Amino acid sequence: MNIHELRADIDKIDNEMLALFQARMELSKKVAAYKIAHGSVILDAKRERQIIGKYDEDAYFKRFIQEIMEISRCIQTKIALNNNIVLIGMMGSGKTSVGRILSDLLDIECVDTDKAVEKAQKLSIPSIFSRYGEKGFRSLESAQIASAVAKKPPRVISTGGGVILNEKNMLLLRSNGLVFFLNRPIEAIQYDLENVFSKRKFRLKRPLLAKKNDLIRIYQERLPLYKKYADYEIKGNFRSIDAAQRILKELQLRGKL
Ligand code: S3P
Fold first, then answer.
1. d(CA 164, CA 170)
2. pTM higher than 0.85
3. Which atom of ligand 1 is nearest to the CA of 159?
4. 84-252: what CATH class?
5. CATH of the domain spanning 3-80
């Protein structure tokens, strides 16, 4: 047998597996409908443990089945989810990257309100601040929030750090969204600001961080507001993928999404 024939056989098996995978996902959607009708949660950890336990002998089989179950859970979460996932937190807490990961995992749109403001104005945030001041920026931000909330959920809405300053923004976001506060330790954000992010770029993109102690001062002022509006807090110096997984797990453990 030559390599071309071997690859042709592999392709054939892949196609058969994909057809089976599709059939499996259709069944999984029916299970989602059943769970929704019965008010059950998406994540059935006991059943997952039982299934994965059968493959303890073979690490690759185990990885394969785990991946399939994870995809299945994402499909079910997307079906059950009738709220937006709203991310709030300080500048540099990872809202944009966590938002992107969640949007990929769940295959739903991600709205980044800062980017939406920039796109609508055809200006960068610093230019908006220097042209219209912080007040002007805040009203443009509120308009983008209202338009994101007006669309049919589920979406991921990744907000700017100051969104919590206006109660109306938060009432709107909470009207059809679950709010997750990404609470990375401020020292970690400060460290990134000094050592990891390009300092100049990070500050330039964030006009409120003109002076050295601005970040800590703003965090202290805002912390009670972030806590007040959060349905759930992700606390710690997490990697974006881990924060996204925790948010997913939290969603999968809620009967009403
Ligand atoms: C702001 C945070 C920025 C941006 C603007 C104001 C804030 O967004 O909205 O510079 O007040 O904290 P990020 O939190 O995405 O950096």
1. 6
2. yes
3. 15
4. alpha beta
5. 1.20.59.10
